[in-house]
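Section 3.1 - Work completed
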Amino acid sequence: MFKSDSTFYYLIGILVFFFVIIYFSVNFYVPFLNSPKSFGFNIQGTRIDPPNSMYFSAKQDVKAIIRTSIGDIHIDLFEKTAPKNVNNFIHLSINNYYSGTSFHRAVEKFLIQGGDRNSVNLNSKLIGKGNTGYFINDEINWDSLDLTKKKRDELTAKGFKSTPNLETPKFKRSMVGMANSGPNTNSSQFFILVDDLEVNDERLNYLNGRFTPIGIVTSGFETVLEIEKQILSFGKMISIRKVDILM
C-alpha cells in the first residue's frame, strides 16, 4: 500500500496528467479556438447539416434580402461564379441559421462582417469565431483575377488553390465575400465591402485570390454604411432578423 504522503502526490500527479491531456486536446484538436483572427466552433444552439443538393438550377437568377433591425440589404448572388458557396448561403438562409445573428465587426472604410451564430448571444466572447460545423471549398479562379506569379506562389505556399472553369470577379465596393480562416474553410460568416478601393490597395489585393465572392449589393447600401457607423462609432452590433432568398 502507498503511504499517505505518497498517495497524495500520486493523486496530484494523476490530476496534472488529466489537465495536460485536456489542455492539449483543446489547443490541437480545436485549432481555431484560440486564434482571434479566425473562427472556430458555434456554441449557440445545435449544428446544422450541410446541404445535400443544389437549391437552384443553372438558368435561375438568385437574389437575397438581408433584413436587419435598421433596414434591408438586397444582394444579387453569384450563383454562376460560386455555385457551391451560394448554395450554402441559400441553405443557411432558408433554414433560419442567420436569424437572430448580428453584423458584429467593421473595419473602417473597408468592410462589415456578420453571419456568426455565436453573435445570438451579444455577450459571448466567441463572437467572430463560430462556424456551422462543416466547410465549403473555395471557388476562386486565379486566371480570372490576373494574379501575378508572386501572388500565386504566396497563396500556393499557404495552401490555397485556383479553381478552374469559373469566372471569378475582382472584389470592389458593395461586393459580398465569404470569410474564412484559411484555405477551404468557408462556412457561414460573410463580409460586405463598404468603400471604393484603389486597384493597388493592399487590403483589396489581400482579398483577391484568397476569399470567394458570392454576390453584390444592388439596393440598401445606405444600410450597409449605417451598420459600419453603428459598430465603429457606438460599438453596437446590428441584428439580422432573417435572410430571404428570391429565385
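Second construct:
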Amino acid sequence: MNSKQAKQIPIEHFLNKLNHKPVKSSGNDLWYKSPLHEDNTPSFKVNKILNSWYDFGIGEGGSIIDLVCTMFNDNVSQALKRLSSDYVSHSPTKQYQSIRVKSAPKKSKLELKEVGKISEKALYCLLRDRCIDVDVAKKYLQQIYYSVNNNEKLNYALALKNDVGGYEFKNGLMKGCIGSKAITSINLEDGKDVAIFEGMMDFLAYLTHHKISDFQSSAIILNSTSMKEEGLKALNSKQFKKAYFFLDNDEMGNQCFEYLSQNIDCDFVDKSNSYEKFNDYNDFLIE
C-alpha cells in the first residue's frame, strides 16, 4: 500500500476498528474523545469530506498516515505497513497513551502573512458545511494566510478580528488565534439589547437562522469561555436594555453563563434552552 492508497481509507473506519466511536456529529464533522490522550470531553475532530483529523488537546492534526504515526509512534513506512494489514494489527496500550501526552509538542508559532476577502473555495465549502449564509459571513469574516513554525507553506482560514487587533480563525483542520486573545464586540451602544455568543460560528448561525442581513442590536462574541472577565467588562460598559445569552450547552458554557448573569447590571435571558438538544447554536442550525 502506498500513501495515496492509504489516504483513501476513511479515518472514521480506522477509528471504529480500534473501538473509538464518535460522541457526536455536526455536519461533516465527527467528534471523539481523543484516542491520543485522556479526554473527558470530545476534543478530537474528524472531517469526513477532507478525511482529516485535528486534536485540539495537543494541537496536532493531518491525514490518516499522520494519525497512525502519532498513535503508534511509527514512521511513514511502518504506518503504511500497519494500514495495509487490514488497517491495524493491534491497539495502542495505556502505557503508550501516557507517553504521548508527555511528548506532546510545544505550542505552534503562528505568523500572520496576509488579510483579505474570502476567496478560497475550501472556505466557502466550510461555510456551506456549517450552513452559514455566505453573504452574512462576508460582512464579519475575512480570509487570512498564515505560517506555522516558520514553514514556507501558507495556510488559510476564516478569521474574525477581535477587539485588540488579533484574529480568531477557523479552517477545516484547526481553530485558534493569531495575536492577542480577546473578545469581539459589535455595535455596543446604550439602550440596545445585547446578545452574547461563545464563538463566531454561533453568531453567524443566529443571523443565518433568523435571516438577519443588517444586524442592529449589540453583540459580544467571547471567542472562548476563558474570556468571561473581558466579556463582563464589555457587558457592564454600557446600559443595555436586556442581555440574551446563546452559550454552549456544556459544563463550560453553563459556568460562563452563571458567572456573567450573576454579575451584569441589566436583565437577562438564557436562550440556550431553544437549542437544548444540541451543543451550540451552529449545531442546531445544521440539524
